[in-house]
Design goal:
alpha+beta; two-stranded antiparallel sheet; 7 helices
C-alpha cells in the first residue's frame, strides 16, 4: 500500500509514510470537521495509530486535498476494536466472515469542489480491497449539524430503500439517537430534496449497494448526525466494479 499511486487528471493518492504525513492529514481533518472553532489544530484520536492513512494530493504541488484512514480487520469478531463500535451495537456483524475494513475520518478540503478528488479516493479504496480480499467496507457517514428535521427526506429515503439486512442490522448504543426508521415510518421522501441533503460520500455508497443503520447517532462533539454504513463488496454491481477498477489502474 505504501507505494500505491493512483492518478486521475491532476490528483494522485498515496499512503502516509511519515509523522509529517499524518500530521498533515490531522490538520486537514480539523479544518474539515471543526472549521474555525476554538480547539486544537489537529483532529486526532487513539485509532490513528492503528490505521493506514490515505492522502489525495494535487500532483503538481503536493497540496493535500483529501484524506481518510483504513482499519483492517481479519473478520467480524474484531469489529469491537473500531471507532464505529463506540456508537453502535455491532454484535450482529460478529458473524461476518472474511476481511473487513473500517473507512474513517474521510474528508475533502472545504475549498475543493472537484469531483475527481472523490474518484481518486475511491480508486485508492478499490486497490486496497482487491489487494487484500476485503469483503466489507463500513464506517460512519455524517450529516452536518444535529438538527434531524433538516434531513427528514434523506432519512425517509434511507428508511424506504437502504436499511441494513436484518442479519447485519446495528442496534442503538449511543446515549442520543434519532430512530428515523421508526419516527418516519409513514413519511414518503421528496426524492429531489432527499438527494440534495444526502452527504456525497454516503450517496456514493448507496449507489454501489450500501446500506445503513435504522437510526442516526447525535454526535454533539463532532456536531454531526451519523449513520452506520456498510458496503458488501459482492453486492457492488459488475459495471460499477469495472469503472472503479479502471480508475484504479
Amino acid at each position: 500500500m505504501r507505494d500505491m499511486v493512483v492518478v486521475a487528471a491532476k490528483y494522485h493518492s498515496r499512503q502516509a509514510s511519515t509523522a509529517e504525513d499524518l500530521r498533515a492529514a490531522q490538520v486537514l481533518r480539523h479544518r474539515a470537521f471543526h472549521g474555525d472553532k476554538i480547539g486544537p489544530a489537529l483532529d486526532r484520536d487513539q485509532f490513528d495509530a492503528h490505521c493506514a492513512h490515505i492522502l489525495v494530493e494535487e500532483a503538481e504541488n503536493g497540496r493535500l486535498v483529501c484524506c481518510f484512514r483504513i482499519l483492517h480487520l481479519a473478520h467480524g469478531r474484531d469489529i469491537e476494536r473500531t471507532y464505529s463500535a463506540q456508537f453502535y451495537d455491532l454484535s450482529a456483524l460478529h458473524e461476518f466472515d472474511g476481511p473487513i475494513v473500517e473507512i474513517g475520518r474521510f474528508c475533502v478540503d472545504p475549498e475543493v469542489g472537484d469531483v475527481d478528488v472523490l474518484r481518486v479516493a475511491w480508486a485508492a479504496m478499490t486497490r486496497y480491497v482487491d489487494a487484500h480480499g476485503v469483503r466489507l467496507l463500513f464506517g460512519c457517514s455524517s450529516f452536518q449539524g444535529t438538527d434531524a428535521d433538516a434531513y427528514c427526506d434523506a432519512f425517509a429515503l434511507l428508511k424506504d430503500r437502504h436499511l441494513a439486512p436484518q442479519n447485519w442490522l446495528p442496534r442503538p448504543k449511543a446515549p442520543s439517537v434519532f430512530r428515523f426508521a421508526e419516527r418516519l415510518r409513514r413519511r414518503k421522501p421528496d426524492m429531489k430534496q432527499a438527494m440534495l441533503r444526502m452527504p456525497p460520500l454516503l450517496r456514493t455508497y448507496l449507489m454501489m449497494g450500501g446500506w445503513v443503520s435504522d437510526h442516526a447517532v447525535v454526535d454533539r462533539q463532532m456536531n454531526t448526525l451519523h449513520v452506520f454504513t456498510g458496503l458488501e463488496i459482492a453486492a457492488i454491481p459488475a459495471m460499477r466494479k469495472r469503472l472503479l477498477r479502471a480508475d484504479a489502474e
